[in-house]
Amino acid sequence: MKTILRRLSIALLMSLTMACEPIDLGANGILSFSDETREPGFNLRFGVNRDIAKGATLNILVSEPGVTMDQVRSDDASTVSIQATKTVYTETADDNLPTETRITVVANEVGTTRIHVTLDDNRTDYVEITVSETTSNEMEIYPWHDWVALDPVLWSNGLKLLPNTNLTVFGRARGPDGKPLTGAKSAEWILDTAGDARIESAEDSDFAVYKSGNTVGDNGLKFGDSARQALPTIAPTDVSRLELIFPFGQMDTVKVGESIILHTAFFAADGAYVSGIGDKAVVYETTENASAGQPAVVDNHEELDWDNPSSLSPPTLIRAYKVGRAVSFVAGTVGMHTITARWGGLETSLEIEALPNVNADTEGPAPDEATMP
Fold first, then answer.
1. 369 pLDDT higher than 70
2. Contacts by residues 195-204 (CB-CB < 8 Å, ≥ 24 positions apart)
3. Which backbone phi and psi does 274 adopt, to 5 degrees?
4. Nearest residue to 348 via CA among 197, 242, 206, 223
5. Residue 103 and residue 80: Cα distance in Å, rounded?
6. Is-contact 223 311, C-beta < 8 A?
7. Are 229 and 220 in contact (CB under 8 A)?
8. What burial class does residue 101 get, using C-beta atoms within 10 Å of its C-beta: 0-12 exposed, 13-18 middle, 19+ buried?
9. What number is the average pLDDT over the span 164-174?
10. Whether the Cβ atoms of residue 246 and residue 327 lie closer than 8 Å to each other
11. In 3D, which of 83, 122, 80, 124 has the Cα closest to residue 103?
12. Collapsing DSSP states into helix, strand and coil, what is residue 19?
């Protein structure tokens, strides 16, 4: 938990610092231009400061509402062409206000050109854009959420999925210098399946959701010319081992009253990491004066309550807990505590030492539940 809060704090600090400097202004200093490409993480990039992948579509956010197609031009439409403009509205307490314009461009050929915007008062500004050839594609995997990614070392021995499992994947394009390129849809997802697995691409990004389907069998997925990632669908009985791990680095101790996140990793007999949860959730138990919970205490049982309207946690983080098998652990007293995870006839336990915490009441009762903020 402290790790996630620390990351959020750093992200906020970065956004505030970056907002103080005109790093996203156009060449004439009149308008700001921001690359809207959705990528893993917090997406705090400002300006248009990376090359676009040839063939990609790029959304550029401009700090002026109501800009129309005839107010935007490309110096070289054969390199970058204008596809559409759309006013973006910001919701306020009383109304939706037009605040910006989204300009959609397509990178047609390798080269550099300028995108100009002329306002109603004839002031103009522009941003320079470079298009590069994609020299390699990669596929990234996010069994939790891209904000709280698991270490890929977990599936260094392979990755398998339980039936009816959704897996978030991201396709990345890199240029001749090895650096990531921006834009979306420069490459296609390529799926081969022996069953009923499928891939559903996001509309405006290179994120996609891979769905393992009901049928046990071999499947594989590529993004462009990336290496094929084997993603076989296996039966729940093929999960042979559970392991409680610290997803954000190994920890031997925790302070009383502080919440930490654990992950119940599933593995097949061959060491492959298994994604998914099946029909029943992991059940957690702890020794006296400690607790283990998910976003809401009513969710911490075998029957998954996917659409619980009383949940206080964001859906993306609920997914990390329920489908990603995350659990928050809190110790109420100093000493050794044990947390046990059970699923599908399997179980695993982990001992955690709780140290004194000057800010916590070590004599008080253990918390009833551990929740996400």
1. no
2. 195/219, 195/233, 197/231, 197/233, 199/169, 202/38, 204/36, 204/38, 204/57, 204/59
3. -115, 125
4. 242
5. 12
6. no
7. yes
8. buried
9. 96
10. no
11. 83
12. helix
Query: Which domains occur in the chain, in start order?
Result: 23-132 (2.60.40.10), 137-234 (2.60.40), 239-355 (2.60.40.10)
pTM, two decimals, is: 0.84
Cβ–Cβ under 8 Å, residues 167 and 231: yes
Strand bridging mode 283-286 / 219-223: unpaired
- How many residues are listed for the chain in this entry? 373
**Secondary structure class of 135 (helix, strand, coil):** coil
Q: Which residue has the tokens 């998914």?
A: 276
At residue 29 the predicted structure's pLDDT band, cuts being 50, 70 and 90, is: very high
CA distances from 43 to 46, 143, 253 (A): 9, 19, 33
Cα 228 to Cα 152, 159, 171, 231: the distances in Å are 16, 12, 12, 9
Residue 39 confidence (pLDDT) above 90: yes
Q: Residue 164 has which token pair?
A: 């009816």
The set of residues, in sequence order, having a beta carbon less than 8 Å from that of 262 and lying 6+ positions away, is 244, 245, 246, 247, 292, 326, 327, 328, 329, 339, 350
Structure-token pair, residue 152: 């890929």
Whole-angstrom distance, CA of residue 290 vs CA of residue 370: 10
Token pair 């400690």: residue: 290
